[in-house]
Amino acid sequence: MIINSIQFLLFFLCVFLIYYFPLKEKVKEQNILLLLSCYIFYGIADWRMVPLLLLATGVFYVLGILIGKSNEAASSRASLLTTLGVCLGVGLLLYFKYLNFFITSFSDLFSSIGLSTNWSTFNIIMPLGISFFTFKLISYVIEIHRQHIEPTTNMVTFATYVAFFPTIMSGPIDRPNSFIPQLQSKRTFNYDLAVDGCRQILWGMFKKMVIADNIATCVDLVWDNILITPGINIFISVLLYSVQLYADFSGYSDMAIGVGKILGFRITSNFKYPFFKKNIAEFWRGWHISLTSWLTDYVFMPLNIKFRNSGIWGTISAIIITFVLVGLWHGANWTFAIFGLYSGLLYIPLMLSGSFFKKSKLEINKYGLPTLKDASKMFATFILMSFGLIIFRAENIGQAWDFVCQMFSSSLFSIPDNRGLRRLVYAAVLLIIEWYQRDKEHALQIEDVKFLSNSIIRWGLYLLLCFITFMYAGTSTEFIYFRF
Questions:
Q1: How many independent structural domains does the chain possess?
Q2: Which structural domain, as residue segments, surrounds residue 76?
Q3: Is 330 a catalytic residue?
Q4: pTM of the model
Q5: What is the pLDDT at residue 446?
Q6: Catalytic-role residue among 145, 288, 330, 442
Q7: For the chain, which end, N or C, has fewer CB atoms within 10 Å of the first or last residue's CB respectively?
């Protein structure tokens, strides 16, 4: 059951009606309903993993209380319990997501030096959303140990935070500091917030179903036929895949955030128009924000402090390690690790030139477009990330190499086919709309747009967008980040 499905609409309608009418302002009862809804939603996706989610939630709930009690009385005990919690969270990821990867990698390594092994992989089922709810669990115990929050004594509240159904499958990764207080406060129907949530859901559906799914058919065709595809079509697919990934993932984030708004929650923003950034550091501040900020706080900052005696190269080392983890977070494959390494290495020129520490405002000309200087920086950043995503998209390093070699063959200068060019139009439409709405949380916050000030015109636009979404939707595909 996915957010842009009829099944989810019916499911959410039932939750909504009970949540706001019989249970209005009844925090305890609303949270119980939410928790039941979360486990029904997760159970429909994969009922076999519900016991694991329950067990992990129970263990970290107890750990949180124990760490809170130990913080003042015995700081060493609190540190030990926090370390235990982090190790348990990382252990979950290592077992379910990376164990087979390590077994295969070590077996291949020994084979390469002439040593044979009888190691075999296990039939491990990776729980959906494990990368997302595990990070929630880890941040919870760390924040208690840092005394930024008090441990939650209400099991229902804590379990709802961990399993909140709009975000458990593909994020955003909410921090306990901001989300748990919302679960503890009264929630009544907020018309303005709910309307904005509906608009954000609609915009997310448009991005996913019209932009991402249509581009996906073209990109997948190229990747399935690398050796017989002209280089120019491969190059176009490189540009398209960046937009596909963005439209797919940010589309899901918009839908999840919109559902949260209807229920009275403010979910962490996950994207801030990354394609309009002028360097790689700015790009990552606007891309998958909840993940990069999580790793910045819990990995980069401690490493940077540890390496501070090494000066700027210590910071660079911390950045590279963090980005290798960003890559590996996406999956158990060397391609993800190399993508993370590539992203981290792109920071070196910024660090050495001092640009990393400088923040400059985007300059706009009289036509409302970026100046030539800033536009060239934005395009260069887009190209750098697009080429990095080749290794991200590839199934293995060999496939990525074949892809690059075929792209830079003599056919790079041939005439592209219409299929790719049409998809570039889809991408251009998305980027143009978001450019003019880049100061807003999402593109359908249009109340202050002069020619849309009339409510009839605005509703006409919403209905037109609904029509386009359902009439021009591409072949339905799974959300990309469900795999991670």
A1: 2
A2: 6-189
A3: yes
A4: 0.93
A5: 87
A6: 330
A7: N
